[in-house]
């Protein structure tokens, strides 16, 4: 028999779930305003961090590589992403944002008010603590 979580833990988990749900809802809406699906926006945003082979994009987004191929195809047809040889291994193709793709990703990020506005109500110390707690929960070493 599994021990029951204490009420505070249950409440925190519920709040995290609500934040995640609201974030995805706004993300989908912001993506649509840029004529993108949520999945296309996530792929484009990820590629703006660094160009990646599609297999790694699929791993990071936890989905099938064939789905990523279709998403990259559609982004490429819109001039937002391009495929280019990997300088480390020319047999591998990287998906990378075009200049227009990077600008679109920037506009998308700028239009996400849900997270930014409530976070702006926290002090710098509170945001720093929240960041450190989230990193600890995810097993990410603090910067």
From TrEMBL:
<protein>
    <submittedName>
        <fullName>MarR family transcriptional regulator</fullName>
    </submittedName>
</protein>
<dbReference type="InterPro" id="IPR000835">
    <property type="entry name" value="HTH_MarR-typ"/>
</dbReference>
<dbReference type="InterPro" id="IPR036388">
    <property type="entry name" value="WH-like_DNA-bd_sf"/>
</dbReference>
<dbReference type="GO" id="GO:0003700">
    <property type="term" value="F:DNA-binding transcription factor activity"/>
</dbReference>
<keyword id="KW-0804">Transcription</keyword>
<dbReference type="InterPro" id="IPR039422">
    <property type="entry name" value="MarR/SlyA-like"/>
</dbReference>
<dbReference type="GO" id="GO:0006950">
    <property type="term" value="P:response to stress"/>
</dbReference>
<dbReference type="GO" id="GO:0003677">
    <property type="term" value="F:DNA binding"/>
</dbReference>
<dbReference type="InterPro" id="IPR036390">
    <property type="entry name" value="WH_DNA-bd_sf"/>
</dbReference>
<keyword id="KW-0238">DNA-binding</keyword>
<keyword id="KW-0805">Transcription regulation</keyword>
<dbReference type="Pfam" id="PF12802">
    <property type="entry name" value="MarR_2"/>
</dbReference>
<dbReference type="InterPro" id="IPR023187">
    <property type="entry name" value="Tscrpt_reg_MarR-type_CS"/>
</dbReference>
<feature type="domain" description="HTH marR-type">
    <location>
        <begin position="9"/>
        <end position="139"/>
    </location>
</feature>
